[in-house]
C-alpha cells in the first residue's frame, strides 16, 4: 500500500470517528476511540489508533490517561507536549465545570452532595500525593471559595488547626468542608485523619465556625465523616 493510500485511510477513519462522536456525544465509544479522537488534534499527520491503545493498556482508562504524570506519558512513543497540553486542558475543563456547577447552585451544600463529590474527585482524586483542600461556605451553607491548603507525600498530609481557622476567618466563612485524597485508593480514615478532624472541629467550635464535613476521595470511592456518623461522634466528644 502506498503512502498516499495509508494517509487516505487514516484521514477517512478520523472523519468517521468525528461523525460517530457527533451523533452520540461519544457515549457509545470505547475509551481508546475517544482518546484516539482527542489525539487527532495533537498529532495531525499520523495514525493515532496504536498510540491510543498503548495509552489505555499502560494506564487502564481514559480518565487515568488524561490525568497521568507528564514523564509517564512521554514513555509512550508519539506522546509529546502537544498531546500532554490537550490532556491538561481537558482536566482543567472538567475541574472548572464541576466547580461552577457547585458554585452556581443556590441550594445549601448539604443538598448538593453529588456535585460536591464530583468536584472533589475532579480536583484531587488522580493526584499521586495527598492534598488537603478547604471549601468555604457562607451562612446559607453555599459555596464561596475553595483553597488548596497543603500537599504532602504519597500517604500523608498534615496541617495545624490554627492554619485552618486563620484561612476560614480571612475568607469570612461561616462554615467549612475539609477534603483530601488517598492515592492508595483506600478511603478509610486513618487514626491521624480522625485526630486532625477532631482538633479542627474543636478549634472551629470555639470561634463559631461550623465544620460541615471531612471528605476523603479516591479515583472510585469516597468517605464522608458526616455521612458515616463519625463527625457526629467527634462533635459529641468535643462538647
The shape, in one word, is elongated
> Which oligomerization state do the chains in this entry correspond to?
single chain
Provide the CATH topology of the largest domain.
Cytidine Deaminase, domain 2
Assign a percent range to the helix content: 40-55%
Number of domains: 2
SS content category? alpha+beta
Summarize the helix and strand pattern as letters.
HHHHHHHEEHEHEEHH
Averaged pLDDT: 89
Q: Quick one: biggest sheet?
A: 5 strands, mixed
In DSSP terms, counting alpha (H) and pi (I) runs of 4 or more, how many helices? 11
- Examine the secondary-structure arrangement and name the CATH architecture of the largest domain: 3-Layer(aba) Sandwich
Strand content: 5-15%
Cα separation of the termini: 78 Å
Q: What would you report as the Rg, rounded to the nearest angstrom?
A: 22 Å
CATH superfamily annotation of the largest domain? Cytidine Deaminase, domain 2
